[in-house]
Model the fold of this input.
Amino acid sequence: MSKAAVGILTFNRSIEVQRAIDSVLPQMGEQDELIVADNNSSDNTEEVIKKNYPQVRYIKNTSNLGGPAGRNEIFKICKSDFIINLDDDGWLEEDAVEKVREAFDSDPALGVVVFRQRYPESGSGARQFEQAGREPAHFYEGVCAFRMEMLADVGLYPNDFFQYHEALDLGIRILDSKWKMISRPDVVMWHPKVGGGGANEDGRWDYYKFRNYLYVVIRRFPFPENIIFFLRKLGLYLFYALKHKTLHKYFAALRDVLKALPSCREYGKVSRQTVRRYYKVMKRVEREMFD
Done:
């Protein structure tokens, strides 16, 4: 039986992270591990976890590293066979750990299990998730599980993304590898439904949203797909920026992407077949959303 880990990245959510931890602990065996990485919270998160949960492996980063780099710190110290990624304001449904363990134990080629996010307000789930056993187009960072051997093979999240599209960068590398991804909608992570602009009401996250997708295209896509999708996304994001009045974020992102062009040769490209495969699955998902 494989050894399980659950990794939670948190930042200034001392109340919510306790609910996440409480949902995990009853599901963990003696050999399993629960890791909480704190992105330098300024509230009482550290005090609460150390006092109430001595069995948790707690690490505190010296600054807010953002989502990708923060999760990478968890992966670096994980000693288990696979890790479930859980948002600090979410919680696992009963038996989620054992269902994921069963999936990995039954298929040594399985690298990623994508499970279902459900909303307590309505009981409904995010539309993106696939039928059981289908290959998903992508995954949310806190609603999936990774085999650690797979991460060692394909690499971790890009440390410089901070927020948005790190799952695309990692996911397309996984699609280009020997590892499989499957959907398991019977494995559920509950999460409050976030509506409206959320943290992006002032447009401060749009810079990363624009920049990071373009980073993926210029770093990972081969020629001529990199040119085609770069120009396509430039147009789509320009329309988005005009609509949301964040043109300054759009041009700041474009400036930094152009400055980064010379360094793109340092990154491994995926095949043209992988790019086509990714967008074929994405088109199917988008079509099925409205069937």
Notes: Strands lie at 4-10, 33-38, 57-60, 82-87, 91-92, 110-118, 143-147, 180-190. The chain has a mean pLDDT of 90. The chain has ten helices and eight strands.
